[in-house]
Design goal:
Elements (H helix, E strand, L loop, with lengths): L2 E6 L3 H13 L2 E6 L5 H10 L11 E4 L10 E4 L15 H18 L4 E4 L4 H12 L6 E3 L2 H16 L6 E2 L2 E2 L7 E2 L5 E2 L2 E2 L6 H12 L1 H9 L6 H15 L4 E10 L5 E12 L2 E5 L6 H20 L4
Parallel strand pairs: 1-2, 1-4, 2-3, 4-5, 5-6
Antiparallel strand pairs: 7-10, 8-9, 10-11, 12-13, 13-14
Length: 309
Amino acid sequence: MRKKVTVIGAGNVGATCAQRIAEKGYADVVMLDIVEGLPQGKGLDILQCGPIIPFNTNMTGTNDYADTANSDVVVITSGIARKPGMSRDDLIMTNMKIITEVTENIAKHSPNCIIVCVTNPLDAMTQLAWHVSKFPRNRVLGQSGVLDSSRFQTFIAQELKVSVEDVSVCVLGGHGDTMVPVPRLSTVGGIPLPELIAKDKLDAMVKRTVNGGAEIVNLLKTGSAYYAPSAATVKMVDSIIFDQKRILPCSVLLEGEYGINKTFVGVPCKVGEKGAEQVIELKLTPEESAALKKSADAVQELLKIMKLG
């Protein structure tokens, strides 16, 4: 029986996610949005790519959660996007209402699914989805670290003029200003990054990675990133659907790991058919541990505003 993946939200990130999954051909795709005609129109457009690519995916655009029933994976992209000068945290109250309603419907129609949350502020919204769904922690993941890592990998590969495939990086923490890229645990062809790039250039890359989303928002003026976020999300969906057991940085609920409790924050996880199947604990320096704790504290501040902390 074919797998079923639902994407909630037919904006740029959601529609691009749906397109990427449809083109892979491994699952039927449902794209839902509250705007009448939007998911239907984009869904039909994607469906008509089938003979060209080619693929035989069943692609459904809908405004009715009944069409999402019994999904294996549900990707949440709903919410308003950042505008120039707006922090992720500014989005919190509006997107909180949206994610609550979306998650209630997901839990009702697909009680056995795995949720991948993409909406910002990412870690807080993922924690909200977990809280509302009442799913076990392994079945609610946030997409953040895969995107942040990709940005860091891109900057390194460009600087060293090497293949991005030979660049392996470590990015921890919340998806935002407090994320924690860890150059010490990042390599190029197995060679530690600090041995290849001078500290001042490396520090600049770290800063650019932390501000990666804002850089694109400021360039676009009227939107935010969606090509790389959608690709990162689909990488997680692939690992779940195919039970790949990839070690991917995801926002997950920590219950004592890294000395952090009851908070969603980005750490390496083994991702397979059961979701976040294992949290990988790295040995961090005191400075790295402090930075990760600071990032978790920033998420906790949002949770207090949301009355979840």
